[in-house]
Amino acid sequence: MIERSTLTTVLVRALVLVIIAMASATPTLIAQRIPSAHGFQQTYPGAIAIGLSAGPNFNVGMSGPRATCDCEFDGGTGIGSHAGLHLDVHLNRWFGLRLQGLYEDYSSVYESDFAVAVFDETGATADATARRRADVSLHYVGISFQSVWFTGPAGMYLLAGAGVGFFAGGTLRDEEFITTPGFVYPSTGTSTQLYEDGDLDQGRDPVRRASLIVGVGYSVPLARGIAIAPELQFDYPLTSVIEGNADWSIPTIRTSVGLRFGL
Q1: pLDDT digits over 148-193, tens only?
Q2: Alpha carbons within 13 A on the beta-carbon side of 128
Q3: Rounded Cα gap, residues 185 and 196, in angstroms
């Protein structure tokens, strides 16, 4: 027959083992039961989420393409777009790494007003005002690496990193208009003169685009392991658009909505 002291010892040891087992299992059970606001089923090191994103780019051209006229562009603006994928990997609860790939449109328009000598309707020469306009369509395939700081359960996160973009095609339309009424160009007999309309890389060497990236986003959980995330990124280029024109670059403000799936 088992003595009372021996039985008590066995029961105490068993109870201690059960408590230890429950304590070690509780964090895992909680993590599996509560979905993360960032699109992860649980935020353990190595947790992965994949996302789809798209939206408009607000492009701000610095300087501009060099025209054949005696004029300089002070800058330009334009609205483009982007679409792509990103992969987020948690290092811990607060920090992660992102690999992002995008197809982007950096379209922008540049204008400059200047004085020009033209003919009036009587055939006499006179000074008038003209406007030079360069309409640029520019496309890149880019990849970037970013560090992500998940700031807390509210869903906001910050990111910073660097990227590189590869030229994927573009066009340039370079034309001039006389804005003073009643004047025409001697060469065309009209108030418009077209200098170029074709591929941007025709006679030019587009440069691989290197840039620094900072941004902020906010994840809104839709279901377990699924979140929608509006995001804002500022992409500042370290390189010019084409070789030989170091002043021409295109920073962009990238706004997007992403759909993220925790794996």
Answers
A1: 998 866 788 999 999 999 999 999 999 988 888 878 877 788 888 8
A2: 22
A3: 16
165: number of Cβ within 10 Å = 25
How many whole angstroms separate alpha carbon 199 and alpha carbon 172? 6
Residue 96: pLDDT over 80: yes
Least confident of 26-35, 78-87, 245-254: 26-35
- Pairing of β 125-150 and β 226-237: unpaired
Beta strands in 151-251 (DSSP E): 156-178, 183-184, 192-199, 209-218, 220-223, 226-237
pLDDT surpasses 80 at 261: yes
Decide: residue 174, CB within 10 A, 0-12 exposed, 13-18 middle, 19+ buried. Answer: buried
**Exposed, middle or buried by CB within 10 Å (0-12, 13-18, 19+), for 230?**
middle
Q: What pLDDT is recorded for position 152?
A: 67
Residue for token pair 């960032």? 38
